[in-house]
Amino acid sequence: MRNWVSHGIRRIYVILSKTIKFYFLERPSPTAVPGYHGRRRVRYRGQGEGLQIIEHEIEWIERFRKTDTYRFVPRLLEISVEFGNAFYDIQYYPYPSFEQVIRSNMNASFFVRKRWNILFKGLAETLYNTQNSLEVPEDYLDEMVFEVLDARLADMPKDPALQQILSADRMRIQGSDQIGLRRILDRLRAHEEFRKRMVPAQLHAVHGRMSLENILCGMRAKRMILLHGGGCAKGIYGDIAKDVARLYHELRGRLLHLRERQYSLIVTLVDGVPELDFEILNSALRDRLVDNYVMVRDAVESWIQPQHGNILYRAAFYEACEPLHDVFRKDMRRSEQLMLLATAILRLNQWLQKYHADIYAQLEVE
């Protein structure tokens, strides 16, 4: 009993001290924020393809704020879409990101769970409603899923190790046999049930880049600001499952560990079969991230699934594909690219076993 009480007191002390530190004592200076433009405003600029993204982010803010009773949308101060001078200014918010909250263990778990529930309840009632939706085009699956994946695989770095794992029919990851990435995608491409279930009922004005970094957290659980919504070259409309999948991936895709170099990786070739073994070194952070993954999944099941059906199926598939996009980040080293590719293969095999056990069994014996 004494240990339980002393642990609780220490936890309360840590939470209070970190809250005071982040929100008061060491609040980040506005001038240290990328894009800070004076007068407590932040400016985001774009050129070339970035111009299109800036236009979509402005459109997203304008559309979302009409129904935003939760005040998730940043306050828009000034915009310009002139060629060579495209930008928009938003109010500066001195809040830590959700990534910082989780990394520093700043909030108690019940408070973090409350944040996730408020976020998805708010999105379900505002951004993800029928007012912000479009019909799904007939060529949606091929154009927005398979063509995108084909382009990513074709542009994959020409590193011999990456290419060997990418083209392998089978491999071993963490001591278990895995079916090759290309074999699974090729089989799914022609699978009628998969094609039917992957098409959402409608497209919505999704966030598009729902990362932990783009969610700012105020002191109150319901005070959150979503940055860079609609920031996709294809437009602001898409599948809600992709927003969910991005959070899934950030919470259990080991991205934070890769950025902090908190992992070890061994790659070998045994009888022509690639074998990858890795270990995550910061187990405390890993466990917190997995706990948050469970919270997000519960919130999605409570607030999104009842209205939009079949979203967990699509979100789990997109989660498996997310590492293929992160491979192209400029800050990724070769070992991190291998970790991302291994994560994609593991997740896709797990997804296939759960949702299409018959296809998995066929591929195993072929």
Account of the 3D structure:
There is one protein chain. The chain has 366 residues and is α+β, with helices and mostly antiparallel strands. It is 52% helix and 16% strand. It has 15 helices and twelve strands. Strands 6-5-12-11 form a four-stranded mixed beta sheet. Strands 1-3-2 form a three-stranded antiparallel beta sheet, with helices on one face. It is globular.
DSSP, total strands: 12
Uncertain parts: none
- Percentage beta strand: 15-25%
Q: For this entry, what is the oligomeric state of its chains? A: single chain
Shape: globular
N- to C-terminal separation? 58 Å
Number of helices: 15
Reported for the largest beta sheet, the result is:
4 strands, mixed
Helix content: 40-55%
Order of helices and strands: HEHEEHHEHHEEHHEEEEHHEEHHHHH
Give the C-alpha Rg: 22 Å
Class derived from helix and strand content: alpha+beta
Strand order of the largest sheet: 6-5-12-11
